[in-house]
Amino acid sequence: MKTTSEHNKRIAEMTFAAVYPHYVTKVERKGRTKEELHQVIEWLTGFNENKLQKLIDEKVTFETFFEKANLNPNAGLIKGVICGYRIEEIENVLTKQVRYLDKLVDELAKGRKMENILRDE
Fold first, then answer.
1. What Pfam families is this protein classified in (predicted)?
2. DSSP letters of 13-30?
């Protein structure tokens, strides 16, 4: 499945603050914690809880969110299908980064062990 320029633009302009509550709801509904979610987000982006809250309060777009992020060097190990897209085949860098985050949240909600989610070799 190939992403379109309209799809990529929509993702870039979406605010992290609008999506974050859905991440929290998804993981908590499956018995995981907000702290575990923050651990996953920090692993991917380098944002600690205070920085994450600041970005939420500022209502930054995903584009700004990932521009400010220090992406984990092992992020490329995140593979698979999320939202109907195979991550390895996504060409747009920002869309791929957002799907990395979506995939990690999905794995957390599905009960995967933290050491497997964080892909630290």
1. DUF2200 (PF09966)
2. HSBHHHHHHHHHHHHHHT
- Identity of the residue numbered 108: L
User: What average pLDDT does this structure show over 9-14?
Assistant: 90
Task: Say which residues have a Cβ less than 8 Å from residue 18's Cβ, sequence separation at least 6.
Answer: none
Backbone angles phi, psi at 15, to 5 degrees: -85, 145
- Answering whether pTM is above 0.85, one says yes
Span 5-116: which CATH code?
1.10.8.290
Q: In terms of Cα–Cα distance, which of 47, 27, 7 is closest to 16?
A: 47
- What are the residues facing 85 on neighbouring strands? 82
